[in-house]
Q: What sequence folds into this?
């Protein structure tokens, strides 16, 4: 079973930040169900040095640190198809068809 | 109704040579100025020099936000400009914010986003290291990475406002596709429209010509039009602003010797000290001899003298003046005379001007001679040459140096050249040397076409060259049409009519 290490960078408690968190939680529950999935949420207003270290420009930014290679997805994660593409996961519908 | 009086906008001296003059005191303080230019127009150098000059001259700290090149590339590329960025970083004077695109990374976009992290990083750098100046280079890379242009524009506007609030003066670069036309490719000027500077690198008569123009500075004054600049290794961008010195010149009434007694008499007692003299003649009329006599005259009256030779090497010059050779070599050893030989094509006209300027600052001469200024014309387009002459003449006037330029006229007899059309308005005194064909003989004629502010001999005089130098003789009395090249002898009968 592969381990998923995800970091979500947001800017403050905004509607967009809240949407990104909601979307990420939904994807984790549905698409990464049964996997070891660890999510860290980082607010760049509180911890700007982490944004500097990761050289992040846009928020929200989701970084998949594990499994390698590192992947980045920019945006509020509302486009699930793009998120799955970024995480290199087959869409849930395709998986169901396989079963 | 309350009437608000507009507050004048303060300016921040950039310390970029010449730039503060054309901007009437630098960039608007705590504002963002857009610097737009085509590819290769020295935008990145400008952005970096804005910070470097602040560090060197005013102990002002700077942040360099790079969207395009990596900090490593910038450090090594700009080292040749004489800026040791790495040391400044260690000393906390220069901070990089690296927003360059990493090759391994091509992020996927899902939904809406903003540039909140970038703004947070800028604020973090300002709070941690402090900053008086910031450069953002270049916005195009940002626009090409984030497809939602509306978002990028809105976010950049937010960043510009934040910089103003933090009281930081900013330079933002953007690329444009043409030298004349739309200000920038992505319409960046729409959100930083208050101040726009254009850098150009245009082809003019097959020569590259760099210019800088202040397109607009809202609510403050600046000089209009394009000003030539050059990029000098070890110094960066140098803007040539002739009008910087033109107005402050004061005319001196004291006279200096031309190095030839007869000529001094013709001038009414010598040249004015702060005047520019043009000696124009065809090849072989004695221009270089004229120059050496001018130099000898300076040396004999104890003036430091500088000669810029663009046609002959030092050895050739010394050989030609065999009589004065020992004297000149001795004066060179004493440090009273300096001969700078330069092949005109080795640099652009702007660089020549800067090198002459540097030499004058270093040597502090009382008089300089340039043999010949027409050789320099080969290097640049007419417009650039015109600016060079204005810049040089203005420099000599401010420094109160007597300057003698020689110019070669292409036609053996008669008419003057086009280059003189550019030179003559800038000169105070014009001396023409011409060949005259008379009775099957080539003879030499000299005349003073003008001498500003002084009575002078306006006759066309014959002159001879012998081992002891140049001798001015009697006027040609029975000849007309010497300057037009069609000399006709007039019979003595006609003269008496």
A:
């Amino acid at each position: 079973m592969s381990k998923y290490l995800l970091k979500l960078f947001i800017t403050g408690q905004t509607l967009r930040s809240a949407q990104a968190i909601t979307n990420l939680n939904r994807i984790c529950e549905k698409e990464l169900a049964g996997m070891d999935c660890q999510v860290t949420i980082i607010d760049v207003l509180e911890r700007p040095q982490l944004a500097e270290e990761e050289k992040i420009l846009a928020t929200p930014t989701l970084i998949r640190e594990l499994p390698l290679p590192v992947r980045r997805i920019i945006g509020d994660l509302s486009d699930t198809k793009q998120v799955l593409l970024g995480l290199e996961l087959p869409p849930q519908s395709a998986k169901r068809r396989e079963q | 109704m309350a009437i608000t009086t507009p507050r004048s906008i303060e300016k921040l001296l950039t310390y970029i040579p010449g730039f503060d003059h054309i901007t009437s005191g630098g960039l608007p303080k705590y504002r963002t100025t857009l610097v737009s230019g085509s590819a290769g127009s020295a935008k990145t150098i400008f952005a970096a020099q804005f910070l470097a000059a602040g560090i060197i001259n005013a102990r002002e700290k700077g942040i360099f936000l790079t969207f395009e090149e990596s900090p490593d590339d910038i450090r090594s590329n700009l080292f040749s400009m004489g800026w040791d960025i790495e040391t400044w970083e260690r000393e906390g004077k220069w901070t990089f914010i690296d927003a360059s695109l990493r090759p391994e990374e091509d992020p996927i976009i899902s939904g809406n986003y903003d540039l909140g992290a970038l703004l947070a990083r800028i604020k973090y750098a300002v709070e941690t290291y402090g900053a008086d100046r910031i450069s953002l280079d270049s916005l195009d890379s940002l626009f090409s990475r984030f497809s939602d242009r509306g978002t990028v524009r809105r976010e950049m506007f937010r960043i510009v406002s934040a910089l103003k609030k933090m009281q930081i003066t900013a330079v933002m670069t953007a690329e444009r596709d043409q030298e004349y036309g739309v200000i920038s490719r992505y319409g960046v000027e729409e959100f930083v429209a208050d101040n726009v500077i254009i850098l150009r690198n245009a082809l003019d008569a097959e020569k590259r010509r760099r210019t800088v123009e202040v397109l607009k500075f809202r609510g403050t004054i600046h000089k209009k039009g394009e000003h030539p600049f050059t990029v000098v290794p070890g110094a960066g961008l140098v803007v040539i602003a002739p009008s910087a010195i033109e107005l402050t010149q004061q005319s001196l009434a004291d006279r200096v010797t031309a190095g030839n007694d007869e000529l001094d008499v013709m001038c009414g007692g010598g040249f004015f000290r702060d005047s520019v003299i043009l000696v124009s003649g065809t090849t072989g009329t004695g221009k270089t001899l004229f120059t050496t006599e001018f130099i000898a005259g300076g040396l004999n009256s104890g003036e430091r003298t500088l000669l810029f030779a663009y046609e002959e090497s030092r050895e050739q010059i010394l050989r030609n003046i065999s009589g004065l050779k020992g004297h000149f070599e001795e004066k060179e050893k004493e440090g009273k005379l300096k001969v700078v030989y330069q092949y005109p094509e080795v640099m652009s006209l702007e660089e020549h001007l800067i090198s002459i300027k540097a030499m004058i600052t270093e040597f502090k001469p009382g008089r300089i001679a340039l043999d010949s200024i027409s050789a320099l014309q080969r290097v640049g387009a007419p417009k650039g040459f015109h600016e060079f002459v204005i810049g040089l003449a203005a420099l000599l006037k401010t420094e109160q140096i007597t300057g003698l330029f020689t110019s070669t006229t292409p036609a053996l007899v008669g008419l003057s050249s086009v280059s003189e059309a550019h030179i003559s308005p800038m000169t105070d005194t014009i001396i023409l040397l011409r060949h005259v064909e008379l009775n099957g003989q080539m003879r030499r004629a000299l005349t003073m076409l003008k001498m500003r502010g002084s009575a002078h001999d306006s006759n066309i005089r014959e002159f001879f060259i012998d081992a002891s130098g140049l001798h001015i003789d009697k006027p040609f009395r029975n000849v007309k049409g010497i300057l037009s090249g069609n000399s006709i002898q007039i019979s003595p009968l006609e003269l008496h009519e």
Q: What stands out?
A: The two ends of chain B are 86 Å apart (CA to CA). Residues 255-496 of chain B form a domain with the Rossmann fold fold (CATH 3.40.50.300). Chain B touches chain A at residues 97-99, 102, 104-105, 107-121, 123-125, 142, 146 (CB under 8 Å).
